Fold each of these.
Amino acid sequence: MPRSVNHVASRAKRKKILKLTRGYYGARKNVWTVAKNTWEKGLLYAYRDRKNKKRNFRALWIQRINAAARLEGMSYSQLMGAIHKSGVEINRKVLADLAMNQPDAFKAIVDKVKNA
């Protein structure tokens, strides 16, 4: 009895991955083993960088808050310590947005925690 191989499914699987690697450079887009390895590695990078994205944004917010706080005569750590001590519930994302787009509101928050 001849061997039965499901060519339809295996070809479809290869076509799907080769379609996902369109736009890659050289053999990465059309050689099955290279394309498969590249695609799998891309999935690992995507997983890793979803975590790194959060880290990078937090670092950006801290830099923006620090720059705005220094214009008000405080360092970042002094400002955050004063915010926590005064009981103001505001996160870094919102604080950085205020520092960038509404400096008057940021100044009001700094004045409030300085006096508290």
Amino acid sequence: MYESGENYLETILMLKETKSLVRSVDIANELNFSKPSVSRAMGILKEDGYITVGRKGAIELTDIGRKKAEGIYERHKLLTAFLQKTAGVTEEAAEEDACRMEHIISNEVFQGIKRFMEV
């Protein structure tokens, strides 16, 4: 899966924490993307089995979509905390870099950071 798809899944998961109903317009607003771009991405995610779209446009993560989104979000949160702790940077700076890093970091390095942060 591409970084953009992972970002969409993570955004859906985060929006579901505060909204009972997530629609394409909510994702577009959150990411500051155009509605047609989001609509196209939702079509791809639906085709790949990561989401379902209800009659009223309600977007739901499938089991596989939720698992993927939760993994990405876990990486995001851990990397943000790691960067703040080790680099002494602001939460904003850590969040921004963690958002890029979460998509390219190997599982081995992620697990090492996870062990480090548990100490």
Amino acid sequence: MNAAVAANVTELRTRDDARQVADLVAGDEEAFISLVRREHASMVRHAEQFVSSRASAEDVVQEAWAAVLAGLPRFEGRSSLRFWIFGIVANRAKSRGVREGRCVPLSVLADEDEEDSVDADRFFPPGSPQAGRWMRPPERWPEDLLEQAETLAVVRAAIERLAGMRRQVIKLRDVEGWSAKETCALLGITEGNQRVLLHRARSRVRADLERHFSAR
């Protein structure tokens, strides 16, 4: 996306957010119901990263909705409405996670689980003119295979097995559809870290899929 297009998208988002916030502050029930339908499930999934159970995540999100309604008159549009809401969820979930003994500082999670996701012998070795590139690249899988319920279940299970920040990054990017910039801002990480974490997470999920398909 070039700079002009990105600026136009940002402007449209800002206008949409301002209109929606005005409706919500005015007490428009339909606007609130629409917002809840669009964001609630994603908010619960995000809260689950920090707390001990689905029930705790649901409680956190209920508290977050109350905080959103209370804070809307002070929303200044410096970030997207969605980013602002998810920031409230994250803060509340982290506090709950600390009380439950579940929450781990993001600075710790950023460095955990560093083992390779793909065997090193599938890449050209250091010193080679093609060092770091695939010697045995991944096979392309048929679209119908990737869309099967069984495959999707393997992907979901693989994501849940990921540790800390890898799981959070891939969920935000590939499950919730957040942009790289939004993901970095929400998690407090650099763009470079986000790219590395997302690559490692996707590689680990792909490795789990390869094992699953080879065992069939």
Amino acid sequence: MEESHVHDIARVIQMALAPAFLLSAVGALLNVFANRLARIVDRTRALEGRLDPSSARPPELEVLKRRGGLVRWAITMGTGAALLVSLVIGVAFIGFLAKMNFSMLVAGLFVAAMGALTLALTFFLREVVLAVGSLEAILPRAVVRSFHPRDDDETPLGRS
């Protein structure tokens, strides 16, 4: 193999490393999203197991359903971002090996990957905001007071 080809291959590998690190970060985010979804599913099962069939559905179940949908979309967009980053790496190598200029395709795939990642993070942020915002409406008053203690409370939970 000629010396210039070795340098060319090394350059392509260097260019592929940044997307590979991005792929690792997206994988870590997907793990966070999946854990979040698992907690939502566990909480939903626990609530449904305690439901009396004749009673109305508690409002927390509706919030959990909305949260689950947001996390599902975050996972979908995160997985799409990972697939697009993988394509960026693959197309870059194919372009090098085939001696073809796929720079516009690589750039387009990268922009699409960043768009999908941005959407994934947006859905995740919305889910977190919904989860935190639902605390006051769903949790018992004693726990809510721990977040907003009154002057007459001696302890964060209002116990003497």
